[in-house]
Amino acid sequence: MTQAIQALPWMTDINQQVAVLWAQQKMPHAICLHGQPGLGQRHQLAYMTSMLFCENKSDPAKPCGECRQCILFNNKEHPDMLILAPGDKSTSIGIDQIRQLTDFVMGTAYFAPMRIVIVDPLEAMTVAASNALLKMLEEPPPNVYFLVSTTKLSQLMPTIRSRLQFFSVLPPEFGAFCLWVQAVLESLEEPKCDHEVLYNAFLLAQKGPFLALEYILAHTKSQHETTELLFSFKRDPKQADLVSEYLRFQEVIKGPPAAATMHLGVLIKTVGVQIAFLFFDLWLEDALASLKEQPDAAAQHTRIEVLWQAYSRIQQMREDLVRSPQLNKVYLERELLDIWVATAT
Ligand SMILES: [Zn+2]
C-alpha cells in the first residue's frame, strides 16, 4: 500500500506561510529552502507540491491524501511535477536534465492547477544548467512554480539568488527529533533505538534529522535503503556506522595517549578526515561544557585553557578543510595527534 506523504514537524511554519501565500494569490514563482544538509529538503519540497496540488483545501497546509491529485501524487505518478536532482552515479544536474525541464515547462498541466519543478540542491547544477534555469526564472513560464533548495547560499549565482524567495529551515530540538525518528523507525518495522544512539546520531548529524536517520539505520545494520514514508530518502548502503565509531572514540580518547596513534590511523581510514575532525570538535565541545559546569571550575582553569585552545585549533582547521578539501592527509593526521596528546589527561 502506498503511504501518504508526511509533514515534517520542523517545517510547520514554512507550510503555513506557503499555504497563506497561495490562498492570497501571492505565491512567488520560485521558493528556495535554505538550511544545512540533512533536514529533509527534498521531502519538504515534495510535501509542499502535494499541498499545492491537493483539491481539498479544508486544511490548506495539509494534503488530504484522498483526492485525485493526492492519490496520483502518493503513487508517485503525478505528471505535473518534475524533480531535478543528481542521478545515482552523478553529483551534478546537467544539461540533459535541463532539456527534460524545457520539455516539461513547454507542456501544459495534465491534472493539477499548475506545474511544479523541484530542484534539489541548486548548487548541484552545472554552469550551463544554471544559466538555462536563470532564463526561466527571469521570464517564468505561465503557471509553473519552482520549489528549490540550497545548503550553500554563497555558491549561488547572484542573478539566481535575486529571483528566489528564501525560507530558512531550522533543525528541530532533540526532543522533537526523537518523537519523529521513533515514529519513522516504527513504520519501517525497525527496532526502537535507545537514548544514547539517538543522541549521538543527532549530534553527529549536527541536528539534521534525515542525516541522523541515515546514521541510525547504519548503526542498526538495517537493510532499508529507501523508505516509502520519506519522499526520495535514499540511504547510502556504504555509510559507515558512525555512532559506534564515535562511542569507541570517546572511550579511547579517555585512555593513554600512546593508544591514540594507532587508533587515529584506523579512525581516519574508516570515517575519513572530515568526520575525524567532527569527532574532535564534538568531543571537545562536550568536554568544555561539562568542565565549566563542575563546582571546582575555577581550579580547572589550566585544563579549560588547554581544551579551549585545542577547540579553537579544530575550528580553524575545519574551516581550512572546507576551503581546500585536498589538504595533505599526513599533515592533518599529525595535527590531530598533537591535539590528542595535548588534551590527554
Ligand atoms: Zn488531496
List the helices and strands and how they pair.
Elements: H1 12-23, E1 30-34, H2 41-53, H3 68-74, E2 81-84, H4 95-106, E3 115-119, H5 127-138, E4 144-150, H6 158-161, E5 165-168, H7 174-187, H8 195-204, H9 209-219, H10 242-254, H11 257-271, H12 273-293, H13 301-323, H14 329-343
Parallel strand pairs: 1-4, 1-5, 2-3, 3-4
The structure holds zinc ion.
How would you portray this structure in words?
The chain is α/β, with parallel strands linked by helices. It has three domains: 9-168, Rossmann fold (3-Layer(aba) Sandwich); 173-239; 249-343, no CATH class. It is built from 14 helices and five strands. The chain has helices spanning 12-23, 41-53, 68-74, 95-106, 127-138, 158-161, 174-187, 195-204, 209-219, 242-254, 257-271, 273-293, 301-323, 329-343, and strands spanning 30-34, 81-84, 115-119, 144-150, 165-168. Strands 2-3-4-1-5 form a five-stranded parallel sheet, with helices on both faces. The chain is elongated. It starts with 11 loop residues before the first helix and ends with a helix. 33% of the residues are buried. It binds zinc ion. Zinc ion binds at residues 54-56, 63-64, 66-67, 69-70.
Task: Provide a compact summary of the structure.
The protein has helices at residues 12-23, 41-53, 68-74, 95-106, 127-138, 158-161, 174-187, 195-204, 209-219, 242-254, 257-271, 273-293, 301-323, 329-343, and strands at 30-34, 81-84, 115-119, 144-150, 165-168. By secondary structure, the protein is of the alpha/beta class.
